[in-house]
Design brief:
220 residues; alpha+beta; Peptide Methionine Sulfoxide Reductase, Chain A; six-stranded mixed β-sheet; two-stranded antiparallel sheet; globular; Peptide methionine sulfoxide reductase MsrA
Length: 220
């Protein structure tokens, strides 16, 4: 009798458990789409944000582009506050080394900045550029509004068709840019004979000079 009661008990538990599991299969509510944050123009200058390998390289490329007032190295695209070079290099913050480009839209357009972006990197390399590997070196183009996103989408699709390869760059809504440590700023300019600068940054800068000679600032 006790054994029969035990079987009834176990059977009841199994039925209740199965019902509970079936309820757990309800699909989760869709996550709210992250909306981009737009940076307000100041004194006629706009800001654009790019990640493509080491920020020393990207900063040097845009610093030498006509119409760009300044390029600043930093971090973006992650989920932590106040990222540092050390923390971002762990790959656990989600941040990539990025650059803030402050430009005059009357001299150079956002579209042309995108052209320069793709032309000065290996667009098919995933999670890095050249010798730099890891999610902190991945390629990202950040958009601040629908117009920018449409431009990026069109450029990326056109390039993919042209080379018949998948383009690695992510397209993400801009949220926040964190300025990097002082010693990272203007690194190519301050350390022209650094081995990394000579072997990695300079070749990327030469791509700008070769492909867009009319857009290169005269260096003093």
């Amino acid at each position: 009798m006790k054994f029969q009661l035990y079987l009834i008990y176990v059977y009841t538990i199994l039925i209740v458990s199965c019902k509970g599991n079936s309820q757990d299969k309800t699909p989760p509510a869709p996550q709210k789409e992250i909306q981009p944050k737009e940076v307000i123009s100041k004194d006629g200058f706009k800001r654009a944000y790019f990640a493509s390998g080491c920020f020393w390289c990207v900063e040097a490329i845009y610093e030498n582009t006509k119409g760009v007032k300044e390029a600043i190295s930093g971090y973006s695209g992650g989920h932590t506050k106040n990222p540092t070079y050390e923390s971002s290099n762990t790959g656990r913050t989600g941040h990539a080394e990025a650059v803030e480009v402050i430009y005059n839209p009357k001299i150079i357009s956002f579209e042309k900045l995108i052209d320069i972006y793709f032309a000065t990197q290996n667009p098919t390399q995933v999670n890095g550029q050249g010798p730099d590997h890891g999610s902190q070196y991945r390629s990202i183009i950040f958009y601040q509004n629908k117009e920018q996103k449409d431009i990026i989408d069109q450029k990326k699709t056109a390039l993919s068709k042209k080379i018949n390869r998948k383009i690695a760059a992510e397209i993400l809504p801009f949220q926040k840019f964190w300025i990097a440590e002082d010693y990272h700023q203007d690194y190519e300019k301050k350390h022209p004979y650094n081995r990394y600068i000579l072997n990695v940054s300079v070749p990327r800068l030469k791509k700008l000079q070769n492909k867009f000679p009319d857009l290169v600032k005269k260096r003093h």
